[in-house]
Specification:
- The chain is mainly α and 259 residues long.
- It has one domain.
- The protein has eleven helices and no strands.
- α2 packs antiparallel against α3, α3 packs parallel to α6 and α6 runs antiparallel to α10.
- It holds the Pfam family ABC2_membrane.
- It is a multi-pass membrane protein.
- InterPro entries: ABC2_TM, ABC2_TM_bact-type, ABC_2_transport, Nod_factor_ABC_transporter.
Length: 259
């Protein structure tokens, strides 16, 4: 049973990846926007790093996680869009008639979305290195940043797939991911937590899981192996992934029961 699920998931993930590659304009704009954010923020706000609270940290390394997370949010819609397209053209119904695992039918597009983000994050990192990025923890730190990115991408893709299965509507699936964009700005997006003056924004940043994703990446890029901060980021990923993938699984079960 376990091998069957793995095989089905691999086949359906591969199919979703190939489908995405055939329509590159579904992900290229999101990649370009994320790179644009990186270039604009670095050139326009880098002077902030001279403040004492930054401790001399490179602002490029500080702002890079924002570009990565924005790519995760923007790219998450791909998983939902793929499922909606399969529903609209009847392929989803045909899949339900096959022996394929119901879980793999959901996981295929989600994993494909996660892999898409891995490629996007790699390209963003290459651009950042060309801009002069220095990583305190070296190559191992870059791998950790990639791991955090794909974990966060998995969480967003799960949510997008859940909305797609629940609504069976392409516009709703795409719009559903937009609620996550405020999470970026209700966090330590441009300055450290210590420099946030509004008390309500501090509270929002404290309960916002995006804050811990930012902090874990920035710790690896700037401070080194501070395991407590890195661990909080991975814990946030586990919690959010559990919620979103459970949501996707429940939505899939209801979609199957409705036929």
């Amino acid at each position: 049973m376990g091998n069957g699920i793995l095989k089905d998931t691999w086949i359906l993930s591969k199919r979703s990846v190939v489908t995405t590659l055939r329509s590159p304009f579904t992900f290229i704009p999101n990649l370009l926007i994320s790179m644009f954010f990186l270039l604009v923020y670095e050139s326009g706000l880098s002077g902030i790093s001279k403040l004492e609270a930054f401790g001399g940290a490179n602002y490029l390394a500080f702002i890079l996680p924002v570009s990565v997370v924005s790519a995760a949010i923007g790219g998450a819609g791909g998983a939902g869009q793929g499922i909606v397209k399969d529903i609209e053209n009847g392929f989803f119904s045909r899949l339900l008639l096959t022996p394929a695992s119901r879980l793999s039918i959901v996981l295929g597009p989600i994993i494909a979305g996660m892999l898409q983000l891995l490629v996007q994050t790699t390209l963003i990192l290459i651009v950042a290195f060309l801009m002069g990025l220095k990583v305190e923890t070296g190559f191992a730190g870059v791998l950790v940043v990639l791991l955090i990115a794909i974990g966060w991408g998995l969480a967003f893709a799960g949510y997008s797939a859940g909305v797609a299965l629940k609504t069976k509507n392409a516009q709703a699936a795409q719009a559903g991911t937009l609620i996550f964009f405020p999470l970026i700005f209700l966090s330590t997006t441009f300055v450290p937590y210590e420099l946030i003056e509004a008390q309500w924004l501090k509270v929002a940043a404290t309960i916002n899981p995006t804050t811990y994703i930012f902090d874990s990446m920035r710790t690896v890029l700037i401070d080194g192996w501070v395991w407590s901060d890195i661990g909080k980021g991975f814990l946030a990923i586990v919690i959010v992934c559990t919620i979103t993938i459970t949501f996707a699984a429940v939505s899939a079960k209801k979609a199957v029961s409705r036929g």
